[in-house]
Amino acid sequence: MNIGILSSKSSDVNSSQSRCVLNEDNKQKSRLGKVFETSMVARRALLFIAMLGTCMLIGDGILTPSISVLSAMDGLRAPFPSISKSLVEALSAVVLFILFLLQKFGTSRVSFLFSPIMGAWTLSTPLVGIYSIIHHYPSIFKALSPYYIFHFFWRNGKEGWLMLGGTILCITGNFFYTYIAFLFTVYPSLILTYAGQTAYLIKNPNDHMDGFYKFIPKTIYWPIFIIATSAAVVASQSLISATFSVIKQSVVLDYFPRVKVVHTSSNKEGEVYSPEVNYILMVFCIAVILVFGDGQDIGNAFGVVVSLVMLITTILLTLVMIIIWRTPSLLVALYFIIFFMMEGVYVSAVLTKIPEGGWIPFAISFILAFIMFGWYYGRQRKIQYELTHKIDLGRLGMLLSDPSVQRVPGLCFFYTKIQNGLTPILGHYTKNMRSLHKVTIFTTLRYLLVPKVSPHERIVVKKLGLRGVYACVIQYGYADSLNLEGDNFVSQVLDSLQEHIENCSSLPSDHMPVQEEISELSEAKTAGVIHVRGKARFHIGKSTSFFDRFMLAFYEVLHKNCRPALPALGVPLPQCLEVGMFYEA
């Protein structure tokens, strides 16, 4: 989010009050919080863990659609044994292809179907499980006794530990519900379903490769197949939407290269769609099915990624409890020990599946983490340079007082995003062009997490104390159409400026007549309008370290191929000017 250069007395007061609150908070911070404040190593380790968890979640968005649709479509082979495995993979790829093509229409158009589908799945599968329990092995519930758990591990030892990797799929993918819904509907449904499958497998141990569809009675096979396939599509849709949301948040926080983000709902900020991300996910999902068509390999990969996401979530939530919530140490210890030990055991078991497909999420996560770190590193270096070389109003006044710098006719919108200052590209432009337009409006775009910004709050202007120099912040929400084309936008800004000038006419610092200043605005618009954007690149010198050479070169590749910082504003090309500048690395 870009923050404008506007400031006011009230904001200064609020800032001082905030600093007082922060100082009081700093006194009460925990030891761990102070460690993260003072140690760069600790902060980077935390950043790496958070990035790894984010990348694993994106990897989950690739594997979940693949394994869900492939497992559901594999049900065709039971009634039709002649159907080959390759045909099932091809049909699964077609289903995913259609699903990804429909993403641009948004989730809200079909979301009314999700609850009935998942409700049918939650109610039908336990009924089949109850039938299977009665028909095959009524005493299956004795497996819930801790005695059998202890006896299982005592008898199997290392083999029992390795078998935990096979049970991870039974407990993952089912935590997207509220706690009440999970405890009273989803969890009992899962227990009855898995108990029914287990009862069937006790009597039919050779069917362990396809335990779900084999334990369904033939009379209701096709209805369950339709429900299972629909539920797989819903689960895939959920992870795809979650991936869009994660990418969008990463872009907003400047941890991921800019991609196009479209809000598919006018009243829900979280419903987003990204064309680039959508088609990349589609290619990866289809590739996983066609290249790693064995459901067991994809299942191993899915188990690895989900169990690691759980473990990383536990670690991060523990840090939040300590640093932010300041939860009592006893409760933190109880939470961390219980969940970390339980999830750690599962992670240790699924890591043995890395050679058997478990390496897939690591490969995906490594690529994504490298992209995120490269972008983050480049952005930090660029921000560091801009903050140390920013142009303040005093320096701008000195530049304009130079006799060699001419104030040329016209109205210039100069885009900037530096907080409490102006981009160093302004100094580069003024020094080399030896000119600045008579009316120059330093414009900042501010994205707000609201659907639409009201018209009276959309444009905020301010005089900067120099003749013909103003600041303007354009605020817009995720459902606003940001279009700066034509006289409408220019007229709105000039009208806001005129009103602001008239309101400021009573201030003792304003020596310029109001009508003369307003006349200058009108003359500048008549002379012509131009929009100036900066485009900075890194200059890799001989003294630059090898690490900086490599990382900044990678950042330049990402920057060259990502979306521009300013959205598509609809500015006519003859009025658009890009000013380039090299930042020293």
Automatic annotation (TrEMBL):
Residue ranges constituting the K+ potassium transporter integral membrane domain according to the UniProt record: 41-393
InterPro entries xref list: K+_transporter, K_trans_C, K_trans_N
Membrane-crossing segments per the record: 45-63, 83-103, 110-131, 161-184, 220-240, 277-295, 301-325, 332-352, 358-377
Membrane disposition: Multi-pass membrane protein
Pfam families attached to this UniProt entry: K_trans (PF02705), K_trans_C (PF22776)
Keywords recorded for this protein, A-Z: Ion transport, Membrane, Potassium, Potassium transport, Transmembrane, Transmembrane helix, Transport
Residue ranges constituting the K+ potassium transporter C-terminal domain according to the UniProt record: 409-583
Location in or out of the cell: Cell membrane; Membrane
Superkingdom of origin: Eukaryota
Single Gene Ontology MF annotation: potassium ion transmembrane transporter activity
Gene Ontology CC, one term: plasma membrane
Family statement: Belongs to the HAK/KUP transporter (TC 2.A.72.3) family.
Role played: Potassium transporter.
Protein name per UniProt: Potassium transporter
Phylogenetic placement of the source organism: Eukaryota, Viridiplantae, Streptophyta, Embryophyta, Tracheophyta
